[in-house]
Amino acid sequence: MYIAAVILGIMAYLRGGMENLLQGLTAGFKTVFISFPLIILAMIVAGLLQVLVSQDFIKRWLGKEAGLKGIFLAGLAGALIPGGPYVYYPIAVSFFAAGAEIGTVMAFVTAKNLWSLSRIPWEMALLGPEITVVRYIVTFIFPIVIGLIANILYSKYSSSLRKWIVAAQKARGESK
Amino acid sequence: MISAYIVLTIMAVGLFIAAKRKGDGSHKNGISSGFRTLKSMLPLLIVAFILAGILPKAIPPTVIQKWLGMEAGWKGIVIGSLAGALIPGGPYVAFPIIGSIYEAGAALGTAVAFVTSWALCGITIVAFEIPFVGPKFTLMRYSLVLFLPFLAGLLAHILFA
């Protein structure tokens, strides 16, 4: 991350000098401030979800046994949740840590990216209805299919991914 | 942005009430767990936002526009699939760029591949994804979604163009 920032910073500098780089930095900081209240809200939602949603619930609805039902539900959740990746990844972490299956989490993220309801007005207004409607139709099935394929191919990695996430939470001092 | 605030506020309030009704201090635990995540993730989040800010300065949208030009058919779809991933930021940043390319004469399949690629493979997402769920998850996700923008563009081209 830090390395990527430095590389991009050098590229921006080479392209347009110090002024160009500073414009990029300012734009970045501006979005931090604009999005900050939304980030706080997102973290609160993720934190509350983590204490509220019991392991049993996740197992039943989003875990391995939930199968296709879990994938559909996760997709629906993804479509309904507004905001950028700083909103839905904390929520994905809550699901994962509580025992959700990889395909469920994959369907959640993919549905957020493709079905996002809160994005429709933007898409309609800025891209026009033609692209928007065609795009929603041709990508409609993707989140479900991705969830199913993820369960087939990567199910065996679910527990190691969960371990990484829990270890990362612990390292950040979030363990309960 | 406003609708995101409204929906997330409703969610937060609803969840808070539900947690409080459990009567075991869950509501406090949830909120403090949220703030702990915020505190620990903040440096990385700021770097991610800065990445998103510098990106269009390092790879200007005009360069991407030039690549796409008037390419139609499968060639446009391939280029759209690749270029979409390089478009940074949220919808209010990405859509005007994509819209201008479509208006400049790009084909429907190209535009659909472009939007899908931005939505699924956009590099801004990775900046936030890795700190939360780890590089392994990112790799797995990319292995699954990488060809989808092309498929979406192709379907759009065959069915609707």
Overview of the structural elements:
The complex is a heterodimer of chains A (176) and B (161). Chain A has a domain at 53-171. Chain A has 176 residues and is mainly α. Chain A is 82% helix and 0% strand. With 161 residues, chain B is mainly α. The longest helix of chain B has 33 residues, at 26-58. The model of chain B has no long low-confidence stretch (mean pLDDT 85).
What would you call the structural class of chain B? mainly alpha
Rounded to the nearest angstrom, the radius of gyration of chain A is: 19 Å
Question: Terminal Cα separation of chain A, in Å?
Answer: 27 Å
Based on CA atoms alone, the radius of gyration of chain B comes out at 20 Å
Helix and strand pattern of chain A: HHHHHHHHH
Structural class of chain A: mainly alpha
User: Mind describing the biggest β-sheet of chain A?
Assistant: none
Q: Which strand-content bin applies to the residues of chain A?
A: under 5%
Mean pLDDT of chain A: 86
Shape of chain A: globular
Share of helix of chain B, binned = over 70%
